[in-house]
Amino acid sequence: MLQTQYLKAQAFQDSLKNDTARVTESILIRQQQQGRLDSLLKLQIQEELRNVKGDQIKTLELQKKLVAIHKSDSVRRVQQSQKIAQLKKSTKGYPVVLLHDTLFHVYMRVGSFKAQDRAESISKKIENLYRDPFFRSDSLKIQQNEDSYDIIYNREVVVMSVSDLDALWFDETPARLAKRYLKTIQNEISLQKKQNSLINWAKNIALALGVIIGLGVLIKLLNKVFKHGERFLDLKNQQFFDFLWRKKVRIFNAAQLRSFLLKVYNVLRLLLILLVIYLSLPLLFSIFPQTKSLTGQLIQWILTPLLSSLDAIVDFLPNLVTILVIYFIFRYTIKALHYFVREISKGNIQISGFHEDWAYPTFNILRFILYAFMLVIIWPYLPGSDSPAFQGVSVFLGILISLGSSSAIANMVSGLVITYMRPFKIGDRVKIGEHVGDVMAKTMLVTRLKTIKNEDITVPNSAVLSGSTINYTANCQRASSPGLIVHVTITIGYDVPWRTLYEVLIKAALNTDLIEQEPKPFVLQTGLEDFYVAYQINAYTKHASKQAVIYSNLYQNIQDACNEAGIEIMSPHYRAARDGNVTTIPADYLPKDYVVPSFNVKTQAEQHPKK
């Protein structure tokens, strides 16, 4: 129902437009007729002026009439121009066609004969003249009537009429417009007859065959050229691969590189052949009149994007110069900054409170900020930066990055904090959480450790910052520090004098490689248990990264020293009689006359003899 109402409203609106156009045309016709009457009246008055002599009153009266006619004519011309301008906004032109070629357009009606009907009728009459085998162009004439100029053939057939409104539409006189239409019709009919003759068709077919044969030969030559190119690639493939290998570009092996290059090469060959075929189509279509109209369209499909791209490039050139100037300013600013950073890292330039290992991290931060600032400045000069699509993509990428990079940003911030806190350096032996190893790399996101078992451990910087870090190397590298303290705890029974054990443990520590002689090792008693005493030997070393070797050697030396001193390393939880049991000291440390003690039993009477 709504659709029916819409169609009715649309029909009413179209009818109203047609009525308005019809009224406007009627007004123009009346004004045109009035103009002709005024012209006749003006001629009559001018004739009377020539005949009046000496009668000033009559002369003034006639001159006033001429002035009034001139004013009326001027006003009418202005009104006609306004009416025509109004009609041009809403009036559609209908083409007069001969064999798909447009000769001209008809815009105005003649009486009840609409512009579309006029165009179709004129087209049919011109086509009939074209079909007439005895047509002669000089048989077309112009005949002037009272209201129009008619183009007639053989003084019988009225091909078309040129009215005053037609002439007014083009701001010409009816006679001049009729002559222009006559010449157009004569030329077009003669041209079409010539183009569609049998001789011309034979020539066109021969030319088309020549174009097709030439296209085939050109494609064959292109294939031969590309075949030679394939052989050249086979010869130079290894050299190119070696060049990439020297440049440390190791994405492909030699066979994969050859396969990739051949695929790219064949795609280029196919694209070039398709381009040649496409460019030959306009030449082929331009041979035949029936397809000539497609020629411009095919060429336009290529030229339009190319010209648009060229115009865009030309328009972008001033902005490109600005972008290049901004880029080079920032580039050389960063280069100058890099020079100072390099000198600071080498120690040639010293800044109070600024450590050398801060130089490159600080440079990376400043470089990132400068490039970001440069991008902000360049952004308005980029083509399409103010388009809604470009802005929408930018917002989408921003949301995507903000949603997907929260942990990465946390690690980056932690990396910055770690850089300036300086809890460790590259090469330091550290303990981060449960992991112990040497620091191999510090990046903005992670810290990499290498354990003594050659295990690579990657620790996120956020975990480093949120947890505790032990640096074993820091005090070993300071000249004012005695070094790292390595310590071992052993438990010995109460039967061993502690002073004796102190001497033994200190001796064992001093005999250990990589242990500092000064300050001397020292022993601490860390616990008095029920059956034994806990002793802790502490010694200094400057080699934190060799703790495993130092501890192993220290354990060995403690065993040797205790065995030499006759001290058994035990943690007794009960007391037992030694009678009949071999000592726990290795045989190498026992005297040659050592004999396993026998069991001795004493009675109470033996323990308390009678008096």
Could you please describe the fold and organization of this structure?
Keywords: Cell membrane, Membrane, Transmembrane, Transmembrane helix. It is found in: Cell membrane. This is Transmembrane ion channel. The chain crosses the membrane at residues 201-222, 267-288, 308-330, 365-382, 394-421. The protein has 611 residues and is α+β, with helices and mostly antiparallel strands. The chain has five domains: 2-90; 94-196, no CATH class; 199-287; 423-471, SH3 type barrels (Roll), CATH 2.30.30; 477-589, Alpha-Beta Plaits (2-Layer Sandwich). It has 16 helices and 13 strands. It has helices spanning 2-51, 56-90, 115-131, 164-169, 174-195, 198-246, 254-285, 292-346, 359-378, 388-404, 406-421, 461-466, 474-477, 498-510, 547-564, 604-607; strands at 94-98, 101-106, 140-144, 148-153, 157-163, 429-432, 435-442, 446-450, 456-460, 469-471, 484-493, 522-528, 532-541. The strands form four sheets. A five-stranded antiparallel β-sheet has the order 9-8-7-6-10. Helix 3 (115-131) packs across helix 5 (174-195), helix 6 (198-246) runs antiparallel to helix 7 (254-285) and helix 14 (498-510) packs across helix 15. It is elongated, with a radius of gyration of 54 Å. The mean pLDDT is 80.
Low-confidence stretches: none
> What is the CATH top level name of the largest domain?
Alpha Beta
What is the spatial order of strands in the main beta sheet?
9-8-7-6-10
From the 3D structure, determine the CATH topology of the largest domain.
Answer: Alpha-Beta Plaits
Largest sheet: number of strands, sense, barrel closure: 5 strands, antiparallel
The CATH architecture of the largest domain would be 2-Layer Sandwich
Order of helices and strands: HHEEHEEEHHHHHHHHEEEEHEHEHEEHH
| Discrete helix count | 16
Query: What fraction of residues sit in β-strands?
Result: 5-15%
Portion of residues in helices?
A: 55-70%
Radius of gyration: 54 Å
Structural class: alpha+beta
InterPro entries: LSM_dom_sf (IPR010920), MS_channel_C (IPR049278), MscS_archaea/bacteria_type (IPR045275), MscS_beta-dom_sf (IPR023408), MscS_channel_2nd (IPR006685), MscS_channel_C_sf (IPR011066)
Keywords: Cell membrane, Membrane, Transmembrane, Transmembrane helix
Protein name: Transmembrane ion channel
Pfam family, one: MS_channel_2nd
